[in-house]
Each structure stands twice: as structure tokens, then as C-alpha cells.
């Protein structure tokens, strides 16, 4: 008995489904690479900082001012100057004095200062913000013990008040790319399986009438 051959050609709708699935797979792989490179590595560095207890030793404001760049529109850009506030704390993890920073991003932005204000055109606004922080840490914060974060391998002389990232970064870096990969793979597999079943059904139908 001759074997019945059935053409195996995808319809336009099936071809679109496969292309959509392949597009989602490619997006998942690309986004996984980009997110892991841009978010996951900095997050791992931030989460390696272990908690410690800190108490304020001294608070001082330097005479030196630092430049920052502000934007106030599409064609509006300029530079301002902000004062440098330094908060030295006693780090219980190392037993030594360390410079407190708001978070790791500000530490990398200006390792000399404890806090980098949002850049404003008006220098006075930034100065007043620094003065408020100086008053808080000199008066209220000086009598309190608080949790800070310390990374002895990277910066043993600095501590962080807050971490820049938390464990939720891992969820976002892995969940959404994997979801895109899974949906794309399911679309391709279901389309191929549906077409294969349709071809088999057509072959069986032809055998009945041959």
C-alpha cells in the first residue's frame, strides 16, 4: 500500500504565531543578558554588604564645594555647587571609624561626602538641605544606634545607611525574561503540535477515502 504524503506547510496565521514565539524567545534571552549585566551584578555587590551597628562619632561640613549638573528642560542645563557633609560613625563590625554614605550609588558618585543632594539651580536649596541633615545627625542622630551596612572587601573605610538594591532585584532580573522565554517556547511548540496533528488528521482522512 502506497504511503500517503501530506504537504506540511504552515498557514499565514501559524507562521505569525511561530514568528511571535521566536521573537519572545529572543527578547527573553536578550533581556536576561542585559538585566543581569546592568542590575544583577550591582545588586550582588550591594547585597554582599553585611549589617552592623553604627553610632555617630562626629559630623562636620567641609569648606570645599562640589559641582553637580542640573537639568530644567530640553535645552536647559547647568552646574551648581553643594557643600560636603561628612558623618563619621563607629562601625561595630570592624571596631573602627568609618565614613557614612546614604547608599552605594552616592558612595560611587562622591566618595568624599556622606550625602549628595538632588542637584538644583538654586545653590541655597541644596545648602539648606545639607544644613538640615547636619542638624539632625549632630543633635538627634548622635544619641542613636542604627543599622548600617559594611563591605570589608571593597571599602573597609566606608559604611552605607541604606542598600541600593534588595532581594527583589533577583526576582525582576530572572522572572520577566524567563516568563518571556516560557511564553515564546509554548507558542512555538503549540503551533507546531497543532499543525502536526492537523497533518496527521488529514492523512488519516485521505486513507479512509483512498
From TrEMBL:
UniProt record, GO biological process: detection of calcium ion
Membrane-topology descriptor: Multi-pass membrane protein
Coarse class of the protein's main subcellular location: membrane
GO molecular function term, any single one: calcium-activated potassium channel activity
Keyword Electron transport included in the entry's annotation: no
Superkingdom field: Eukaryota
Presence of the UniProt keyword Ion transport in the record: yes
Location in the cell: Membrane
Pfam families (alphabetical): CaKB (PF03185)
TM helices/strands, residue ranges: 20-44, 174-198
Keywords noted in UniProt: Glycoprotein, Ion channel, Ion transport, Membrane, Transmembrane, Transmembrane helix, Transport
Gene Ontology CC entries for this record: voltage-gated potassium channel complex
PANTHER family: CALCIUM-ACTIVATED POTASSIUM CHANNEL SUBUNIT BETA, CALCIUM-ACTIVATED POTASSIUM CHANNEL SUBUNIT BETA-4
Protein name: Calcium-activated potassium channel subunit beta-4
Amino acid at each position: 500500500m502506497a504511503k500517503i504524503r501530506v504537504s506540511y506547510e504552515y498557514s499565514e496565521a501559524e507562521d505569525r504565531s511561530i514568528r511571535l514565539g521566536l521573537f519572545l524567545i529572543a527578547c527573553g534571552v536578550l533581556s536576561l543578558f542585559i538585566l543581569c549585566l546592568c542590575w544583577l551584578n550591582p545588586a550582588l555587590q550591594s547585597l554582599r554588604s553585611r549589617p552592623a551597628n553604627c553610632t555617630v562619632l562626629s559630623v562636620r561640613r567641609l569648606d570645599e564645594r562640589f559641582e553637580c549638573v542640573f537639568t530644567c528642560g530640553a535645552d536647559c542645563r547647568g552646574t551648581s555647587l553643594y557643600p560636603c557633609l561628612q558623618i563619621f560613625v563607629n562601625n561595630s563590625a570592624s571596631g573602627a571609624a568609618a565614613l557614612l554614605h546614604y547608599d552605594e550609588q552616592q558612595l560611587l558618585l562622591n566618595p568624599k561626602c556622606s550625602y549628595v543632594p538632588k542637584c538644583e539651580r538654586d545653590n541655597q536649596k541644596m545648602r539648606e538641605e545639607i544644613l538640615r541633615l547636619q542638624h539632625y545627625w549632630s543633635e538627634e542622630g548622635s544619641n542613636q544606634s542604627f543599622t548600617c551596612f559594611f563591605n570589608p572587601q571593597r571599602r573597609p573605610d566606608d559604611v552605607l545607611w541604606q542598600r541600593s538594591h534588595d532581594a527583589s532585584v533577583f526576582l525582576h532580573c530572572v522572572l520577566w525574561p524567563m516568563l518571556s522565554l516560557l511564553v515564546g517556547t509554548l507558542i512555538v511548540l503549540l503551533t507546531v503540535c497543532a499543525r502536526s496533528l492537523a497533518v496527521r488528521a488529514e492523512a488519516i482522512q485521505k486513507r479512509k477515502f483512498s
